[in-house]
Amino acid sequence: MNRNLLIVLLGTTSLYSMVSRVALADPSEGPLFIDGEIEMITRTESVDGHPLPEVISGWHYRTESTQALEADSFENPGMLAVEEGEVLWSTVEGSEGKSCESCHDDAAESMVSVGSSYPKWDEASGKPLNIEQRINMCRVENMGAEPYPFDKGGQKQMTAYIKNQSLGKPVEIDVEEGDMQAWWERGKEMYYTRTGQLDLSCASCHERNNGKYIRADHLSQGNVNGFPTYRLKQSALVSLHNRFRGCIRDTRAEMPDAFSDDLMALEVYTTWRSQGLSVETPAVRQ
Amino acid sequence: MNKSKRQFLSRTLGVSAGMAVTALLGSSRALASVEDVQKAVDEFSGGKTPAEGVVTLTTPEIAENGNSVPISVSVDSPMSEDDYVESVMILAEDNPSALVATFHFSPASGEAVASTRMRLARTQNVLAVAKMSNGDVYSATNNIKVTIGGCGG
Amino acid sequence: MAAKPRVKIPKSAAAGDIITVKTLISHKMESGQRKDGDGNPIPRDIINTFTCTFNGKPVFSCDMDPAVSANPYFEFKAKITEAGTFTFTWVDDAGEVTEMTKDIALK
Prior knowledge:
Number of domains of chain A: 2
Largest sheet of chain A: 3 strands, mixed
Order of helices and strands of chain B: HHHEEEEEEEE
Mean pLDDT of chain B: 84
CATH class of the largest domain in chain B: Mainly Beta
Number of domains of chain B: 2
Number of strands of chain A: 11
Low-confidence stretches of chain B: 8-29
Structural class of chain A: alpha+beta
Oligomer: heterotrimer
Number of helices of chain B: 3
Strand content of chain A: 5-15%
Shape of chain B: globular
Radius of gyration of chain B: 20 Å
Largest sheet of chain B: 5 strands, mixed
CATH superfamily of the largest domain in chain A: Cytochrome c-like domain
Radius of gyration of chain A: 19 Å
CATH class of the largest domain in chain A: Mainly Alpha
Helix content of chain B: 10-25%
Shape of chain A: globular
Strand order of the largest sheet of chain B: 2-8-7-4-5
CATH architecture of the largest domain in chain A: Orthogonal Bundle
Helix content of chain A: 25-40%
Structural class of chain B: alpha+beta
């Protein structure tokens, strides 16, 4: 059988059989306690209007050894990045000679509900703002420092450090603030619109087929409560917008820019879907 | 299906199809040979054939991602000054290079137990060979399935 | 080498106790197998040795090859007979040494 034909056959069979494998696997049990102490909400009733009756954390869809990595904050390799974030927190940068600590003091106190309540509406710009953008805003306006480029310079570590202060707290988002509702609508439309050469929407996998397998990957609901996430594949922290772009790239669609209006709308909507689940940052996934 | 459509599909389904093809037809990279593994074991054991027993190798049946596969080895031994485990060598038979790590113990270890995380290129056997202070050699082998993800970014 | 390593041991132990030691360090462990965007191989760059001694005496060590995962993790045991100091060392391909010490008291 010649190589091209083999590739095509594999491609087409994989396309059509990707999400229809018989092995319907239930997520693995729980409960999840970080270090046996911090109780995590990994399954809970969804909010009003949610298409699914129950929201389930991506943690449940992983193998036991991957789950164990997250349950132990010493062994969780994502915590190395959180520690780097802690160092950055008290590092002076920029023309004003300040560090985050100069204004925000002990992050464990000042940031305790920050990671669980973003994105938030920003009146000044007339857009929602996520943690990464809020950090950059502070850096530029208050520290006189350069904004972090996407995924670089310490952005992931700092975002993970801040979100980790909310570990265990249920994700919440206020979609009544400002014009947030319009962004929620736009995000919802993106979530359900099939795009790309593989003609898939987020819902194709994460709503209609969660629990099933796409080749050997156990499809989750695609919740966002664990980002930035330590992915075994990259053996590194992966940010939410990086993951959005990766997923979209995998459907062979054009990737929106990180922090573009499109992806911010998607972040608003997927955060809304994840409400009730505990912040797990840094979650460990495959 | 005409040629241009085939080319179009094969290009667009590029990576994921390519991965599947690789898995089926085998990687073109040089992988460790059976001889390499045998040579490494012989050098380590001083030519002795490892016996069974004494070594417990704990690995998952299926590795969710080949980048980080937990492995734990435990060797039954008093770990006294006259009778202890010197070293345990870990080999992954089908990795590009078979040697994964070599643990060295001493009576101060108390127990000959060690865990780490390793990279596996594909489904394969993993071998742990233990060398005792008196020269005895033991081994254990486990098979680990390494899966290729679906999408994955 | 990159960031600070993490080490976990109990604060104290009774003489004769066998304690669990856990270590984790941030490192890419570039295997030498990967290629960059242009198809050129990315050179190997790993931590190749990890050592643990207690009051100067060897407890556990590991010769590491590229198949050890990024952010290398080790868990092993140590028999405590006296109070003292653990010394942990990581050495990379360039010969750079990262060292960390931790004390343990006797109960």
